[in-house]
Each structure stands twice: as C-alpha cells, then as structure tokens.
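Support request, please re-run this one:
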Amino acid sequence: MTKYGKLAGKFLHLLSNGLVFAFTKDRRERRNLIEEGEEIWHTMDLKALNYVVNRFLKLGYITKELKGAKEIVIISPRGKSRALQYKLNALVLPIRRKWDKVWRIVIFDVPESRKKIRDALRRKLKEAGFLEFQKSVFIYPFPCEDEVNFIINFFEVSECVYYLESPITPDASFRKHFKL
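Re-run finished. Output below.
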C-alpha cells in the first residue's frame, strides 16, 4: 500500500471513530476512542493529510461544512463504506498466550443466489486466520465474536451465519495447526 493509501486508511479510521464516538454512551469506550484518535493524529504528516483531504473531497468520501466560524469535515455514506472496507482489510483476530480449550466455530449457509458474497466471506475467514473445517464451517481457538460480527455485518449475511463456542473432540490436528 502506498504512503497515501495508509494515510487515507488512518484518516477514514479517525472519521469513523468520530461517528462511533457520537453514538457511544460508555465512558471507557469514549476514552479509548479519544486515545486511539490522538495516537493516530500524531503519526500523520499534515502536508500529506491535506492532499488526502482534497482527494477525498473530489471522490465524495467527505464533505466540508461551515459550523459558525469553523469548517468541519463530515464523512459521507460513500466514505463510511470505504472506511468499513479499510477496517475489514486491517482486521486481525486476537491471539492469547493461554488457550481456554474452547473452539470458536463459524457455520454459514449463504444461498446460491449470493454465491459471490459467500465466496468473499469464505476468503475473508481464511485470510483472517480461521481454519476451514468444511466448506461452510470454520474454526478458531480464541474469542473473536466481535470480529466475526463485524465480518458478517460487512457482508450483510447475519441471518445466514452462526457463531458457536464449544470443545471439539478429537482436536489434535486443529491444535497442531494453531500450534497449541
């Protein structure tokens, strides 16, 4: 990814965090969003950021509005979609030092009429680190419900996907695959 591609992802991440912040009532989550935003902000080159802002205005990802004497940047629906794509591409499943001996199982039955989405879901689960147990059954050893929910909501297949947590016996080949 180019320098501007990474910066664009950071910028969209900041804008989408602002949207989440507006709808979050949990103080801890709000504080985490502010801290994350500060961390991202201080890694950005302002000259390059101006280039990205102008590019995003042209692409329709953001708009600028006057609020009193200040000009503010607002993320558009198209920009929100692009931000979600960046988040999906950057998604990393959690890894813990100690395994709780519970498998996370994702089972799906996406209809043939949505074959492209089904294949994209399968690809993303593999890319994220899941092991394909069967064509529509994937397993992972660590808690990842939030990440799975993000993936299935992104692909709009929540009615077709199930997330389970259960021991599996025998699981020696799975433990070997995940080096547990």
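The longest helix spans residues 3-23. The beta strands are 62-67, 70-75, 103-108, 131-134, 137-140, 161-166.
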